[in-house]
Design a protein that fits this description.
By secondary structure, the protein is of the alpha/beta class. The chain is built from 15 helices and 13 strands. The strands form 2 sheets. It has a 7-stranded parallel sheet with strand order 3-2-1-4-5-6-7, sandwiched between helices. Strands 10-9-8-11-12-13 form a 6-stranded parallel sheet, with helices on both faces. It is globular, with a radius of gyration of 20 Å. This is Lipid-A-disaccharide synthase.
């Protein structure tokens, strides 16, 4: 039986990895998977050595926080693959970890497929040389990524974005309103603060204060607040923040697309959720605030005029972005 190592370090990557595993398994039953990821991958049949989605981070600040844990996980995996060489490796985003493990895999002559490119086009063009040296095949979701890699002589294929197949709702808005117990006459405002611990701590308070201002300034308007929560997020922490705000917010976990689709508008943390919200045709504002260390270390590395994927793909500002010091409730 062929054995594939697969690594995904974030909630959205874990979801994409699980779907990929299901498709591969349907084509060839004589393949087994092991690696690092999250609950979706485990449910899809991966022999999960560690759940690293729980350690998901953004930028150097997050890396420093979890460095010792990730270092131990990395060392243990290296020892394992030396003794149990995989037939192939599929690495998904998560550049800080995956490009390091790619060096080890290359030394062991393991073919490497990179599924979901790191966002080198935004802040890490210097990494393309490393990718060209280590990765046998890059599979990308966006045409502009294909062009970028081809221009740097990387073996790349454009495969389209899987969200086009997975982002859908099967119920009418009226049925979803009944399911969630929302007043049918309300205007529904979505709050999507991200899936990583650091993101939620930095962004959720801003979103809640913004919602409080909206409710206070529009007393004649019936507003219901809905918070679709990632399965990997700490619900207890989110509930604490909501309670502290004094707002009534309905938290929906594990029913994300219905929860987004029913909204009249939404505040969305930059990331995959912006694409999901756009595909569900919900108007939004993009909000993002990193911790101070990450902001200082990365602000000069980011070369694009936008950070929202919808704006990047469109090549123009379709969605308003409120970033770092512009991410203020009164904005």
């Amino acid at each position: 039986m062929k054995r594939i190592l697969i690594i995904a370090g974030e909630a959205s990557s874990d979801m994409h990895a699980a779907n990929l595993i299901k498709e591969i398994s349907a084509l060839d039953k004589d393949i087994s998977f092991f690696g690092l990821g999250g609950g979706n991958m485990q449910k899809a049949g991966v022999n999960l050595h560690n759940n690293i989605v729980r350690l998901a981070f953004i930028g150097p600040g997050g890396l420093f926080k979890h460095y010792l844990k990730l270092r131990k996980i990395y060392n243990n995996l290296c020892v394992y693959i030396e003794k149990n060489r995989p037939d192939c490796a599929i690495l998904i985003d998560y550049a800080e970890f995956n490009l390091r493990i790619a060096k080890k895999l290359k030394a062991l002559n393991v073919p490497i497929i990179y599924y979901i490119s790191p966002q080198v086009w935004a802040w890490g063009l210097w990494r393309i040389k490393t990718i060209r040296r280590l990765v046998d095949k890059m599979l990308v979701f966006f045409r502009f990524e294909e062009t970028l890699y081809k221009n740097h002589s990387v073996d790349v294929d454009f495969i389209g974005h899987p969200l086009l197949d997975t982002v859908k709702v099967d119920s009418d808005k009226e049925d979803i309103i009944v399911k969630f117990g929302i007043n049918k006459d309300s205007k529904i405002v979505g709050i999507l603060p991200g899936s990583r611990e650091g993101e939620i701590k930095n962004i959720l308070p801003i979103m809640l204060e913004s919602a409080k201002l909206l409710v206070s300034k529009k007393p004649a308007l019936k507003i219901d607040l809905l918070l679709p929560l990632a399965a990997t997020a700490d619900k207890n922490f989110v509930e604490y923040q909501v309670e502290k705000s004094g707002l009534h917010v309905k938290i929906i976990q594990n029913d994300t697309y219905d929860a987004i689709a029913v909204c009249d508008c939404a505040m969305v943390a930059s990331g995959t959720a912006t694409l999901e919200t756009a595909l569900l045709e919900v108007p939004m504002a993009i909000i993002y605030k990193a911790n101070f260390l990450t902001y200082i270390l990365t602000k000069n590395l980011i070369k694009l005029p936008y950070i929202g994927l919808v704006n990047i793909v469109a090549g123009r500002r379709l969605i308003p972005e409120f970033l770092q010091y512009e991410a203020m409730p009164d904005k």
